[in-house]
């Protein structure tokens, strides 16, 4: 794939499924993006401790129905992202705060319910990162759009982001843009399921333009679509 994420699991035999612990959440994790979790349920303490001991990732998958905390295993989307633990902060009673990074996209072929936490038989999803000249240019325009979007969010007090640290890689930029967009997770999940960079950048570019248009109307409903208003669409 691209330089910001691993080509494979390392310990994974391509063409074969492997068993991976799953963490159903009300969030979508993308390759190259960070994740911070507070682990307090007993089942997830066991799961994370096992991942730490075996130096293996767990899968983060978006919940379709059910609860994030307590109860049985919720229903999830079949495509998720492998999360690799990078830092662990132990707390009282076995609780912990962990920081990780998303890498490979995974697809769940089968669910296993024989452990306290959900486990899936998963395969790694292939991704084609190749971009032609026009698609690379669109990636450059996406960076401009994202900067405009983040500047307005900063003005509204909703977010602070260092705009000097935006990724140069167009695919990583598209994943970051989708992570930062203030839209429901059900609108982010389809972006995770895209299998090539060209389609991903096009879809994220269109979605970012759409969200900028919504913010324009929120800030000043009297602004015409042909006017620049508080910020430019380009």
Short description:
The protein is an alpha+beta fold and 234 residues long. It has helices at residues 42-54, 133-156, 170-180, 185-192, 197-219, and strands at residues 18-25, 34-39, 58-65, 75-76, 79-90, 96-112, 119-124. Strands 1-3-5-6-7 form a five-stranded mixed beta barrel.
Overview of this protein structure:
The chain has 234 residues and is of the alpha+beta class. The protein has 2 domains: 18-124, Archaeosine Trna-guanine Transglycosylase, Chain: A, domain 4, CATH 2.30.130; 133-219, Up-down Bundle (Methane Monooxygenase Hydroxylase, Chain G, domain 1), CATH 1.20.58. The chain has 5 helices and 7 strands; from the N terminus they run ββαβββββαααα. The protein has a 5-stranded mixed beta barrel. β5 and β6 (96-112) form a beta hairpin. The protein is globular and about 50 Å long. The two termini are 29 Å apart. Mean pLDDT is 85; it is low at 1-9 and 222-234.
* Regions with little confidence, pLDDT below 50 for 5+ residues: 1-9, 222-234
Strand content: 25-35%
Instruction: Give Rg in angstroms.
Output: 19 Å
Terminal CA distance reads: 29 Å
Task: Note the run of SSEs as H and E.
Answer: EEHEEEEEHHHH
What share of residues is helical?
25-40%
- Largest beta sheet, briefly? 5 strands, mixed, barrel
Named CATH architecture of the largest domain? Roll
- Largest beta sheet: strand ordering: 1-3-5-6-7
Q: Which CATH class of the largest domain is shown?
A: Mainly Beta
User: How many domain regions?
Assistant: 2
Structural class: alpha+beta
- Please identify which CATH superfamily of the largest domain we are dealing with: LON domain-like
Number of distinct beta strands: 7
Q: List the total number of helices.
A: 5
Shape: globular
Estimate the mean pLDDT confidence: 85
CATH fold topology of the largest domain: Archaeosine Trna-guanine Transglycosylase, Chain: A, domain 4
